[in-house]
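Input record (one chain):
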Amino acid sequence: MHRDLHRPRKGGTTSAKRFEARSRFGPVQGRGQDNRMAPCNGADCADEAANLLLLDPGTKHVSFTNDCDRELLVFADPQKLLQIFINLYSNARDACEVNGKITTTARIKKNGRIEIMVEDDGIGIPDHELDRIFEPFFTTKGPGAGTGLGLALVFTMMEEMQGEIDVRSTSAPDHPTGTRFLLTLNEGRYNVA
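The corresponding structure, as predicted from the sequence alone:
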């Protein structure tokens, strides 16, 4: 099912502040906490993350398209998966021009794992920075614009859920190509008695 999400026209200031606090301090839990692993719907987590980002009226407009199969389940901690989408979508939005596009799709790989792809049409990441983007405190953003913790936390949370993350991107000043993050997780299944 194809779903486009758009920013609400009015309101959202209190919710936006609550979201901003959650996105800044939510992932700090990270290590040492038990995973609450369960079958969860990746498409629903992607929708929730996009809707939370759309609550902030002070950011540039981008469109979020969720083309994930709503029947696909991943075995993950739903809160961590939500935080992963929030981080990836925030970075994608920052990399896009106004009215940029962020698309999420999912598929079953030959090995039975689920691959979720988050793609943007932004400026891309230069080759010489790709090997460092998951390092703590490394950022491609200017001074004061990023902490360099978001992707490091994403990497850690994916490992904690027995998942993998990969990135593909190129950056050319005259021809932006965007970035694609690939999340690979185990397939989730509800126990049928």
